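Data card: per-record layout.
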Amino acid sequence: MSKRLFGTDGVRGIANEKLTPELAFQIGQAAGRWLRESGQHPRVVMGRDTRKSGPMIGASLASGFCSAGVDVDTLGIVPTGCVSWAAMTGEYGLGAVISASHNPAPDNGIKLIGSDGRKVAEETERWIEGNLGAAFDRPTGNSVGMLEPSFGLIDSYLDWLVALVPEGLQGMTVAMDCGDGAAYELAPRLFERLGARVVSTGISPNGTNINAQGGATKPETIQSLASSTGADIGIAFDGDADRAVFSDDQGRLINGDRTMAIWCAHWSRSGGLDPALVVGTVMTNGGFEQYMLAQGVNVHRTDVGDKYVSARLRETGGKIGGEQSGHIIFSDVLPTGDGLVTALQVVRVLKREGRRASDFFGDYESWPQLLVNVSVKEKDGWESRPKVSQSIASGQEALQSHGRLNVRPSGTQPMLRVMVEADNYELRDRVSKGIVQAMIEDLGGEVYSTVDLTHALGD
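The structure for this 459-residue chain is written out next.
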């Protein structure tokens, strides 16, 4: 294939348009052949979110696996973390998730997870792409794969999650927005089982309302619910529940940086953070980094993307890493992001310290951070244009130890992303204005959007 099918998080597109049942069948068949030919265990565990197209895409994907002689255990509607956990702990060669995460309901997606619980390697995706629809000797009779439900795994997953919080959560009130997504049933059930009082919204999926009125990408819903109920903490999950963001009882957003700060500071003081490091990205806030250094914790930065965070955690042996968006990996627990794990890790710290989320909010002040997306006619060679390169050099000189600058092209659009962070708003705005103006003059660009990331979720 000349055009890549798999993106940064699997295959995504409008269901029955780009992501058709025929394509799902071919992906399953090719992935099943890969399992067989690479000597992996010929069995797959599969889950999905609440989209109406999920059963259609899932049935086609499972049929493809079975046609290649691979058995499929289906879990129904479960968070991505459940599939990752099952693939890692069970006798499976692959896990498969039918979800488009935070995308709107008409979209859907397929992402594949290896037997180690991590997303499959890019080389595996390329092999699958190169063998879509290829002829092979199809198994027949007893060699055809079997599709079976395996709901008992869900109870085992919940038992495993409960064991992560030996203190229990008795006496705590938790507000929760499940976004009418994959966590709508399991998340409230989990926290109630741990003894918390749960006030929930986004728990009535109908196939078309996933991510529509709330969830992790629309945190205003959980901020309002947490403040109106006076909860100890508010939790919002995205569509497939692989990430979580939080609110305190005053309705203030706790993004991924603040989430990691709460966890790292607690376990650093308790002697449970070894090595004393956290992995962030180029977007991680400077105020967070300054606070971590004061706690004796080093911050490692990677490019934006959970796969880069995961790779750096493996390299360093770090226990935690993540992004402002709330996609956080606790590597000692699970090698991929799981919003339920993230929620439990944070609420456990509150329980252990006897504090509410609002008690942590003043631990550090975020540095002013701005992201400007600039549409350009041609992004190739942008870094060598005289005005642009000079403006970036001038910006770096002005910031020095008072901030950071990151300029990068979009991977999918004719757009440049300019992130400027400083310890004061005037310096931040002056540097960003100079660089954006140079792009407009030198590249024929125009401002597409401007986002103040100081207390936001990042991109």
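Known properties of this structure: The chain is about 35% helix and 20% strand. The chain has a mean pLDDT of 94.

See the next section for split statistics.
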